[in-house]
Design goal:
This protein is an alpha/beta fold and about 290 residues long. The protein has 2 domains: about 130 residues, Rossmann fold (3-Layer(aba) Sandwich); about 150 residues, 3-Layer(aba) Sandwich (Rossmann fold). Helix content is about 35%, strand content about 20%. It contains 9 helices and 10 strands. Strands 3-2-1-4-5-10-9-6-7-8 form a 10-stranded mixed β-sheet, with helices on both faces. Helix 1 links the parallel strand 1 and strand 2. Helix 1 crosses helix 2. The longest helix has 26 residues. The protein is elongated and about 65 Å long. It starts with a strand and ends in a 14-residue tail after the last helix. It comes from Adhaeribacter terrigena.
């Protein structure tokens, strides 16, 4: 992985996400692009220069604590833009050939609309969304909630490549409803076929649970999870993941950063995913292509 795009709104709430991105970039030996998007439709040269000075000051000031703890960090290249944040991110990803976006979970607010679009049309690269207030800790356990019977091997290999770069272990989760108890052996066999093609340290978990988020929450309560992974184009599912009024107070999964990426699927990625059910075509993008 070569380039990480970090988003900030220069607020105190964005500091943890910025510091998280710094430490992740160091672990991955990646370059850092720090982007601030002003709410104005356009900026004069003077305004742009002023914001750029603020951004550089922000970058230096809040990196100090990380430097004291982690040592030398990658250099930070700062950019300022104006207009719609989603458009600004898409343009930056394309122009700078960004491999991974790191943003706070509030970035999802920019994706709400009456006619939602698949996330990969809005953010054309894998994205790590960091819950508010969560600080970085070494990623030792990556947890991929997926369907063993409908999993793109190349995407799984990309996750493994990320895990190897971080010296992390990957847990693959498959949730199934009570009605599929009789298929457990078949599903497990598919999972074993998948992991046999991978080179990283892995384990399989087959869990009876109809609700994906409930299952992820229960897993995080019992086991270590430093980074959850979903391969979905469902923005509604992502927003539910970070919902502050989630049905379980202080749900465990809401405190774990989420990596979202994309893959072609034969089945809907969630019960609420209108994009899958409508047969909306989307661009395939395996994580292995950018690592």
């Amino acid at each position: 992985m070569k380039k990480l795009l970090l988003l900030t709104d220069l607020s105190d709430e964005s500091v943890n996400t910025y510091r998280y991105g710094l430490q992740l970039a160091k672990a991955l030996k990646a370059e850092i692009i720090l982007l601030y998007c002003s709410s104005e439709k356009a900026l004069t040269m003077t305004e742009q220069f002023g914001y750029l000075q603020k951004l550089r000051s922000y970058a230096d000031r809040f990196a100090q604590a990380v430097k004291e703890k982690a040592g030398k960090l990658p250099s930070v290249e700062c950019f300022v833009t104006a207009g719609e944040p989603v458009n600004a991110v898409a343009k930056m990803v394309e122009t700078m050939q960004v491999d991974l976006l790191v943003a706070g979970d509030r970035f999802l607010d920019n994706l709400k609309s009456e006619t939602p679009l698949p996330l990969q049309q809005l953010v054309p690269c894998p994205a790590i969304l960091v819950p508010e207030g969560v600080t970085h800790k070494k990623i030792k356990e990556i947890v991929f909630a997926t369907d063993f019977t409908d999993q793109d091997v190349e995407v799984a290999k990309g996750i493994c490549k990320l895990a190897e770069a971080l010296n992390a272990h990957v847990s693959f989760l498959h949730f199934y409803p009570k009605s599929e108890r009789g298929r457990r052996a078949q599903i497990l066999h598919k999972g074993e076929e998948l992991t046999a093609q991978l080179t990283c340290k892995t384990s399989l978990h087959l869990i009876e649970e109809e609700d994906l988020l409930e299952g992820m929450n229960d897993f995080a309560e019992k086991y270590r999870a430093d980074l959850f992974v979903l391969a979905t184009k469902d923005t509604h599912l992502l927003q539910q993941y970070f919902q502050k009024t989630y049905r379980k107070t202080q749900a465990y999964h809401t405190r774990v950063p989420l990596l979202n990426l994309y893959q072609e699927r034969n089945a809907p990625c969630s019960a609420s995913c209108s994009f899958c059910h409508s047969g909306h075509e989307h661009k395939h993008q395996a994580l292995s292509a950018v690592l």
